[in-house]
Amino acid sequence: MNNYDKVKNILGDKILVIAIEKFSELQQQLTKCLRGKMNKEHLLEEYADVLICLDWIKKYCNLTDEEINNWKEKKNERNKKKIEEGIFR
């Protein structure tokens, strides 16, 4: 049994709640960066947690790499257009 399956067996649907909490913890670290109070170790820890949670969400919601990559391409193209049009904010 892989780590995700172990976590899913313990948390069930709460796995998404944990992911949301971890996103919030990264958000907190990013606001500290903006205020000039960055703690690189804390930032790295929360960043790693979010990467793990993104993998959980991918598995939980049955998202494929192909689907994700297609959306990343679409979003990058939208951003590129907005930059070229001078409306990227």
Keywords:
single chain, 4 helices, mainly alpha, 0% strand
Give a brief rundown of this model.
By secondary structure, the protein is mostly helical.
How would you characterize this protein structure?
- The chain has 89 residues and is mainly alpha-helical.
- 81% of the residues lie in helices and 0% in strands.
- Helix 2 packs antiparallel against helix 3 (40-60).
- It is flat and about 50 Å long.
- The model has no long low-confidence stretch (mean pLDDT 96).
Structural class: mainly alpha
Number of helices: 4
- The total count of strands amounts to 0
Kindly report how far apart the N and C termini lie. 44 Å
Largest sheet: none
List the topology elements.
Layout: H1 3-11, H2 14-34, H3 40-60, H4 65-85
Helix pairs in contact: 2-3
